[in-house]
Design a protein that fits this description.
8-stranded antiparallel β-sheet, globular, two-stranded parallel sheet, OB fold (Dihydrolipoamide Acetyltransferase, E2P), 183 residues
């Protein structure tokens, strides 16, 4: 192959890879003790409402109203509402999607690991800090968080597992979190 042919081939491949959509965001994997340690608030919640808006920087964000069902760490109390802000959403004909940001279904329950952010909360570790709760094979189970993320072990960049390797009974996870909070 001539130098010119190689240059054209490299240019075509470069454009093809640059135009390919991203399918995941790279993030450091966090185990359960890390999620607990880095969270100011941990709670079992129900998603009540979602409201997209533009933030002070002009980005589309979505405010998620969460009803606290059980408080595991922090000042939130059952019956109170919290606002979680996630990056992305849709305003009219304009939408913004960030891989690795959590998604919510109104009426569904979640175990959330939160830290304060601009008068509201953000999930610790992006979607790692939002674990869906649903009926499963063994009753009420918590599903692993981390959707849309490629989890790695930090400086070495090798694939790594998240806090949960698979579904876990809700009561087992809540007991484990309470034990970690007491330490």
């Amino acid at each position: 192959m001539s130098t010119r042919s190689l240059t054209v081939l490299a240019l075509v491949l470069g454009v093809a890879f640059a135009a390919a959509p991203a399918s995941a965001t790279l993030s450091r994997a966090m185990d359960l003790p890390e999620l607990v340690a880095e969270s100011d608030t941990i709670a079992l919640v129900r998603a009540v409402a979602q409201a997209p808006r533009r933030d002070a920087r002009g980005r589309i964000v979505t405010d998620i109203t969460l009803e606290v069902l059980d408080s595991l760490k922090g000042a939130a109390r059952p019956g109170e509402s919290l606002t979680l802000v996630r990056l992305g959403g849709s305003l009219g004909e304009v939408g913004m999607h960030i891989e690795g940001e959590p998604s919510f279904v109104e009426g569904s329950r979640y175990v959330v690991f939160l830290r304060p952010w601009d008068g509201a909360f953000r999930p610790v570790g992006m979607s790692q800090g939002v674990m869906p709760v649903a009926e499963g094979e063994r009753g009420v189970e918590v599903q692993p968080g981390g959707g849309g993320l490629s989890l790695v072990d930090g400086p070495r960049g090798r694939p790594a597992p998240g806090a949960l390797l698979g579904p876990m009974p809700l009561e087992h996870l809540l007991a484990e979190i309470r034990g970690l909070v007491r330490r």
